[in-house]
Amino acid sequence: MTFPALRFTRRALLLAATAALVPFAAVHAQQGGVPEITPAEAQAQAKAGRITLIDVRTPDEWRETGVAPGATPINLYHPGGAEGFVKEVVAKVGGKRDTPIAFICRSGNRSGQAQRLLAAQGFTNVVSVREGMSGSTAGPGWIRSGLPVERCKVC
């Protein structure tokens, strides 16, 4: 037997917990429950130093389009597998699993995968940049929104 009021209470608690864990101006949830922000929100937060922006695309993609200014390129398809990817992210944030992180990819799929992977590893403040760099059905993406890009420095 389910109790609608109890279900509402659980949902309200979940939403409140998510809001407390992800202190961004606007966090949206896509299918699958991955917290996400828009490219413009990610750019503003990164520029203000409030998030660590990590581009999880491949080196070929970084070379093709460039990367967001200040973004750290860490390939989700890391040569060391998921463990190598997580180790590199941990190193980037100095081991602080509550560091605000925003992942961006081409269209928003891999960044959602990266968010779920890090959440499973105990990270508490990670979001996906919806639309990604190139856009998706969710919107035009970073590049077509006219947000700045720079040449990849590590490619």
TrEMBL record:
SMART domains: RHOD. The keyword Nucleotidyltransferase does not apply. Keywords: Signal. The keyword Secreted does not apply. Pfam families: Rhodanese (PF00581). PROSITE patterns: RHODANESE_3. SUPFAM superfamilies: Rhodanese/Cell cycle control phosphatase (SSF52821). Residues 47-151 form the Rhodanese domain. Residues 1-29 form the signal peptide. This is Rhodanese-like domain-containing protein.
